Amino acid sequence: MKQLVHFLGAVLLLAGATGCKRAPSHLLQGYAEGEFVYVSSPLPGKLTKLSVQRGQKVDKGDALFALESVAETAARDEATHRLAQAKATLEDARKGRRPTEMESLNAQLKQAQEAMSFSLSEQVRQEALRKTGAVAVESIDKARSLFTQDKERVAQLEADIKTAELGLRSDAVSALEFEVKARTEALAKAEWDLSQKQQKSPAAGSVYDTLYREGEFVAAGRPVVSLLPPANMKVRAFVSETKLVTLHPGDAAKVHVDGLAEPITGKVSFISPHAEYTPPVIYSQENRSKLVFMIELRFEDADAVKLHPGQPVDVEFPHEP
């Protein structure tokens, strides 16, 4: 498309130079050109909805087209469920054991404490009887051993209860926290993929062309809609080497357009550092006058909408360039 516009511009300039009716010498011949915005999706799919048509005006954020998104929707839902599962596992790991398990441990501790209390009483009783010679030494040793076992059992159950209240170890909890983060990022990626199946206008402008029809398959990265925002319209003209030194970026110029009663005002936005259309010979004093340099002008949006790509124009500067 750009090559065609350049070709048309060159044809228009040539026609103006060789036509019967020549523009005044203080006017520069040029042409309008648009820098198109090609809207595409980074993901492939069948075009299910084309919301615009050629020539339609759109605002920023308006829907342009949508591609099939069955796979992306399923991937998003799966990622959502996996994240919920990871969060539940992490929450469970941070908790102690279930209430019924804690009740069982507490009951075992109570039984052990009662057994320890009984064995302590039995030890005291056996030691009192030993002083009277009513029992053997072996009975006292057995009572002491039983009390020691019951005491250690109580200590063991108290430690088990503290461990059960803590949940999993810190390194295991950290691993589950990283799992939740990974699942969160996977969900964000799935949501982004799904969002890319529906493209909106990145700027206000007009729909220059639609490149696919509903039902056609669109490859990844292939433009579906081309937009032309007013800010992307410009005018190109060419000045001679001798007139180039009088121009500077930001200089104002009047652009005359066929059919418009009044010219529109633009500003020089670019001056090419390279010569255009130079003769294929070594520079000399005789052919230096044939060198021309391209300049570009930009406009306010209200004026830019009056221009159309490929349209011939005449450029006039306040001073003779």
Q: Please report the total strand number as a whole number.
A: 14
Q: What percent of residues are in strands? A: 25-35%
Work out the count of structural domains.
Answer: 2
The string of secondary-structure elements, in order, is HEEEEEHHHHEEEEEHEEEHE
CATH fold assignment of the largest domain: Elongation Factor Tu (Ef-tu), domain 3
Question: What is the CATH H-level superfamily of the largest domain?
Answer: Efflux pump adaptor protein, beta barrel domain
Tell me the radius of gyration: 43 Å
> Which descriptor suits the 3D outline?
rod-shaped
CATH architecture label name of the largest domain: Beta Barrel
Low-pLDDT regions: 1-23, 281-285
* Backbone structural class: alpha+beta
Summarize the structure.
With 321 residues, the protein is an alpha+beta fold. It has helices at 2-18, 70-94, 99-132, 137-166, 170-195, 241-244, 301-304; strands at residues 28-34, 37-40, 45-50, 57-58, 63-67, 198-200, 205-210, 217-218, 223-228, 233-240, 252-257, 264-276, 292-299, 312-316.
Structure write-up:
44% of the residues lie in helices and 25% in strands. The protein has 321 residues and is α+β, with helices and mostly antiparallel strands. It folds into 2 domains: 2-67 and 207-316, Elongation Factor Tu (Ef-tu), domain 3; 80-188. The protein has a 6-stranded antiparallel barrel with strand order 1-10-13-12-11-14. It is rod-shaped and about 140 Å long. It starts with a helix and ends in a 5-residue tail after the last strand.
